[in-house]
Structures are given as structure tokens and as C-alpha cells.
Design a protein that fits this description.
The complex is a heterodimer of chains A (117) and B (111). Chain A is mainly beta. In chain A, strand 4 and strand 5 form a beta hairpin. Chain A is 0% helix and 52% strand. By secondary structure, chain B is mainly β. In chain B, the strands form 2 sheets. In chain B, strands 1, 3, 4, 8, 9 and 10 form a 6-stranded mixed sheet that branches. Chain B has a 4-stranded antiparallel sheet with strand order 2-7-6-5, with no helix packed on it. In chain B, a hairpin with a 3-residue loop joins strand 5 and strand 6. At the A-B interface, strand 5, strand 9 and strand 10 of A face strand 4 and strand 9 of B.
Chain lengths: 117, 111
């Protein structure tokens, strides 16, 4: 079945530094990838949508200069949290959608727990 | 940012009982709905989906019911097991294939 690999699973960084999170579709080509953020005991909130070879589309209230998204290939999208601050600490999850709808049209990564100290 | 005082709805059942988890969705134009299970520290796991032209779909031990009139979705889990304990989210697909997630329900199965 479709698998999405997300790395790292956990990262701790100092305030002011940048962190890159990778999301790879292992056995299918992902025309679209989605990035979500989830705070404790809350739901997943969509941050942005990225299509291969084009600029990401950000949801209202998400700073595009702070959360840099690159989708350079059909199997890899990256989210870089720039100049991270403690309030950016959260669980970040990617999701990949293939070119055709399948039973598992949306495949999720295992998430990245970011802690900014 | 995080909302102070926000908490997940909870459902506590005995092992072997049936569970019903409910979800209200917001967009009458949504054409596809998915139920996900999320265990602590993990990404969402697909359970079952349903298209808007259906009102019921069954899987293994799970059934999803869709009532478009009142924009309501439910997930029924038969013979609930301790391994079913998790947070369950409904999601609706809107424009540009974006998924919007419901607020989730914490299911606890007591042995």
C-alpha cells in the first residue's frame, strides 16, 4: 500500500534556529502534499498545500516566510520552520495525495514532534 | 496557537460493546468523507471513507453513516477492543482536494 515517510520523528532545537522536516512518498508519485500542524488535544489544522514544481498555497494566518515549503520532486516535500520560537512547538504532519484517487487517496506521514527551547 | 481550556469529547465503552462516534461537518459542498484513527504521537490512520452519493458504507467491524440533510457523519465500531482506544477524526474534502478535520473524539475502551 501507499507509504509516506516523514523525518525526523522528533526534533529539539534552540530558539532562533531553523528546522527542516522531510516528507517522502515511497511507492507512489505525490502530485499534491499537504502540511498540517496539531497542538495537544486539538485537531489537525491545514497549513499549506504544495504541488510539485509550483509555489505552495498557504492557509490564512500561516506565515509563508516562516514556514518554507519546497516540493521539488513528485516524491519529496520539505517544510522548513525558520527562526523557530517556543510557540512553534507542535506536532507537524504531512499528507500526500497521488495522481489518481484510490481507496487511500490521502496517505499521512507519522508526524514530527518539534520542541523549541 | 493553542486554545486554553480546549478538550476533546470523550467516549468510554466496555470491551465488546459497540461504539458510535459522531461528527458534524460544515460544508454542504463536500463530496467525500473519511474517518481516521490517531494514536498518541502518530499520524492519522485511514479507517473508512464514504462518498456524498452514499449514505452508508461498511468495512470490517466499522460502518460509516452519512446524513447530508443535517450534515452529520457517524462511525460505528462493532465489538470494540482495547486496541481501538485512540482519537478518532472525521474529515471532509472540499475544494482543491483539501481535507478539513473535525475536532476529534477520544475513545477509551475499558477491559
Amino acid at each position: 500500500g501507499a507509504v509516506v515517510s516523514q523525518h525526523p520523528s522528533r526534533v529539539i532545537c534552540k530558539s532562533g534556529t531553523s528546522v527542516k522536516i522531510e516528507c517522502r512518498s515511497l511507492d507512489f508519485q505525490a502530485t499534491t502534499m499537504f502540511w498540517y500542524r496539531q497542538f495537544p488535544k486539538q485537531s489537525l489544522m491545514l497549513m499549506a498545500t504544495s504541488n510539485e514544481g509550483s509555489k505552495a498555497t498557504y492557509e490564512q494566518g500561516v506565515e509563508k516566510d516562516k514556514f518554507l515549503i519546497n516540493h521539488a520532486s513528485l516524491t519529496l516535500s520539505t517544510l522548513t520552520v525558520t527562526s523557530a520560537h517556543p510557540e512553534d512547538s507542535s506536532f507537524y504532519i504531512c499528507s500526500a495525495r497521488g495522481p489518481r484517487e484510490t481507496l487511500y487517496g490521502y496517505t499521512f506521514g507519522s508526524g514530527t514532534r518539534l520542541t523549541v527551547v | 496557537g493553542e486554545s486554553v481550556g480546549l478538550h476533546l469529547p470523550t467516549l468510554s465503552v466496555q470491551e465488546g460493546d459497540n461504539s458510535i462516534i459522531n461528527c458534524a461537518y460544515s460544508n454542504s459542498a463536500s463530496d467525500y468523507f473519511i474517518w481516521y484513527k490517531q494514536e498518541s504521537g502518530k499520524g492519522p490512520q485511514f479507517i473508512i471513507d464514504i462518498r456524498s452519493n452514499m449514505d452508508k458504507r461498511q468495512g470490517q467491524r466499522v460502518t460509516v453513516l452519512l446524513n447530508k440533510t443535517v450534515k452529520h457523519l457517524s462511525l460505528q465500531i462493532a465489538a470494540t477492543q482495547p486496541g481501538d482506544s485512540a482519537v478518532y477524526f472525521c474529515a471532509e474534502r472540499g475544494s482543491n482536494y483539501k481535507l478539513t478535520f473535525g475536532k476529534g473524539t477520544l475513545l477509551t475502551v475499558n477491559p
